[in-house]
Each structure stands twice: as structure tokens, then as C-alpha cells.
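Dear colleague,

As promised, here are the two records you asked about, laid out in our usual form so they can be pasted straight into your sheet.

NAME FIELD: protein one
SEQUENCE, THEN STRUCTURE:
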Amino acid sequence: MATEPSDRLNALLLDRNAVAIVCRQPLESVEGPGGVVFPPTYAGKGDNAPPEYNISDFGDGRNVCTMDSVQSQANRIEAAFLTAPYRALVREVTVRAELADGEQRIIDVLEAPHRLADATIRFSDLRQDAERAFRNFRDAPRAVAELSPMSLLMGAFDSRGTYCKIPRALTARIEAHNVRRLVRRALYSAALTGKDLGHEDSKLSQIGLDNALDGPIPGGIIADGGIWREAVLNLIALRQNCGQRVTNRYDEKPSKTPPDDLSAYIFGLGLVSLTLQPETFLRQGCLLVAAAPVAATIRYADGAKTSFSLSTVDALEFAKTAALRFGVASLPPRQGHFQRELIDEANRQAQEKNEKKKVKGNRGA
């Protein structure tokens, strides 16, 4: 009799010799292989420097260009859990903020870039619950999961509070290999010029009148070595984040006891994240599609690997069962309120800290 997907996945989670699920998929421009695509740009060096792509050159003609970083991929994956049917897998925890113009904005923790450690939480009346969860993370990680389960999957660093650091268990990134850089220049030809309007002594290009030149600026890349999306579900980090501190010998047989509800829950979220169809429109000029199916493998501590196949349906069903067992449905929604008065106090403390560093530095000199 064929093994049920849930039995197979539970056995994988319990197998301490299994250390990761690795997925790799080739992507290409919607225009086809060799199409021009635009990576994200980053600030250049120096004042008024043009933006740059993040390209690592190896000095032998090979290079790697960041198309979507680990952080960006994590944010895209989390955004998918804001929509059905994935919304039911994660408790709704939000912060309501009143903006300067009186507008009300509600931010879901799934939208917060730093998850439970984000400033939206730290400056709200949920901060004490978040701080308590971070302080108890090593001994009782369930409190983190009840507020932000993605913090146990994608990681979180409470760098301005408890300094608790939760490792990433799931990483994904998109990179282009052996790229050729393109540059572009632009010419804006105004319908009306300053000369036409009698302003011959002044340039009006800043307000949209007069011709204007732009460039050279980055004009995209061509990836001769292909574009690849790679995702890794680190089973060791996942187990540790969920409180499994005892390290079994790798040659032990997998336990037949069902995994604990927290580990199964975070594992289910990880499986769904691996099988989600990634967002293909990354930015203007970068519309990617799959060039081949995902190749997934399970890697073992002794270096062995086996192919891994899991449908989106099976991943979702496993995650639903695990979420039900964990008790997501019984957790009521939480809404905190952003407290703007905390900002001044935080600024004051930060300034005092910087002043102490300066004094210490001067003494050392």
C-alpha cells in the first residue's frame, strides 16, 4: 500500500539524518533566453553616483548578479499568506497606526519586514508580548509562533531589544549567472522649450520644459549563464527553532512517534512556501517565467541525496492539518495600536547610546 503524503512528510521531519530540502529551478525572461532583464539597483559609491547592480565578479570572466535577495523573497512568500487559502494557516496579528494626516493604516505582521522584531510591533502595545516571547524563545518558542510563526521559519533578530536572534530555516533567492551589463541613455525632447517661451537665459528641464539628457545609467543585463531560483528548507534550524534541543545520532532510525505540533506546524508552512509559485513580476523590466520544472532533493548529513516530489495540494493539506493540531483556529485575532509617543523616547535613548560610544572611542584614542 502506498505511503500517505502526510506519513512520508512526518517521517522526513523526524529523520535526524535529513538536514535540508533543496529546490532549484531555472527561470528566463518572458522574452525568452537571452532577453534583457533588470536586477534591483542599489546606491552607488560617493555623492551623486549612479545606482549599481549587485554583481559579484570572480575575476575569471564569471560573475553572479542578485535578481531577488533572500530578504525580498521572504517578503514575497509572506505576502502570499495574506490571501486565501493560505490566510487560514496564520493567525491574524495586526497593528493599527494613525498617520500624520489622520489616515488609519493597518499593518499585518506578515507585511512587517522584520516580522516580530519589526518597529511596528516594538512601538505598539503588543511590544511587551513580543519581548516576552523573544526572552522565552529558547525554552518556550510556542509564544513566538502564536504571534508570528513566520519568525520561526524566516528568522528574526530583535536587534533593538532583547537581542534574541532566530535563525532562518527557509531561504530563497534568485540569481543570474555570467551576466553582461548594459547601459542606457535617454533624451527627453520637450514639446515646448524655454526658447519657445521666451526663457532663453534659464533652463526649464527641471519642471518638464526644455530638452534633457540622462545617463549613462544601468540598462539591464543579459544572463549568459541563466537565471536560477534556489530555495532551501533547513530542517536542523527548523527543529531547533521549535525547541528540539537534543541532537540525536545521525545513524539512529527515525522515531515513529508523531512530531510535536509546533514542529509540524512550522514544517507545514515551510512546505507550502517551497511549493508556492513564486511571483514572476519582480520589478519593471523583470518579468520572469519558469524555464523548466523545479528539481527538489533531500540532502542527508552523510552527503547522500534523494529526489523529493511534493504537490502544492499535498503541501497545503499537510499544513492545514498541522495548523489545526497546533490550534490556529482557536487563536483570536490580535490588533495592537501604534504608540507614536514611544518614538521620542527611543530617539533619546539612541542618542545617549551614540554619545557614550563617542566618549568611549575618544578615551581609547
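NAME FIELD: protein two
SEQUENCE, THEN STRUCTURE:
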Amino acid sequence: MTEPKKPPITKSFGYAFEGIFTCIRRERNMKIHCVMAVLVVIAGLILGLSPIEWCICLALFGLVMALELVNTAVESVVDLVTSEYRPLAKIAKDTAAGAVLIAAIMAAIAGLIIFVPKGLAFLGIL
């Protein structure tokens, strides 16, 4: 038996970028994540983050945004399968959203740990 032909790598990347841009256009929370990422980058440039701090911020951006993409995928599949209320559908949607929330809260805490001391020093308070 032969394996189905896979699309060229450029098409695969195209599909992935299409998914990312669709999520940014349609999902309010993804827009919020993008705005927060831009604000963190601006603050990081102003406050002079170290390379390790930049790596932490980038990893957290990636984690939160990737989980938002997965959450959107879970919600879309559940909506495709059923339009009526089902307890298992609710669990799938709620737990996917919960994963994003946990990552976002932890990212915010890490951000405070990185940025508060730098901000206070920048303002001459520390």
C-alpha cells in the first residue's frame, strides 16, 4: 500500500499561517494576546531586557498563543460535531479554555517578576 502524497512544505507552511491569521482575525482573545505581546516588546526595548529575559518572554508568547490556537481548534471541532448542548462538549471547550487561562496567568506573573524591578529602577524608585 502506498502512502498518500504529502503537499509541498511551502503549502504546509501556508496552511499553518492561514490558521494563525484566521485565529487573529476571528478570536478576540488572540487579538488581546497579540496586543500584549507588542506592548511587552516595546517595554522590553525601553527597559533593556537581557537575552535570557527575552527568551523567557518569547517562550511565553509562543506558549500562550499556541494554546489559543489549540483552544480555537477544539472549539471549532466541537461546534462542527454538535450544535446542541452536550456535557462532554462543554468539558472539551472549558478545559481547552482553561489551559489558555493558566498559561496566560503564569505568563503575566513571570512578566511582573521580570518587568516590575526593571520599571522601578527605570523610574529611579529602586
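A couple of things worth noting about protein two: The chain has one domain: 28-122. The chain has four helices and no strands.

Best,
R.
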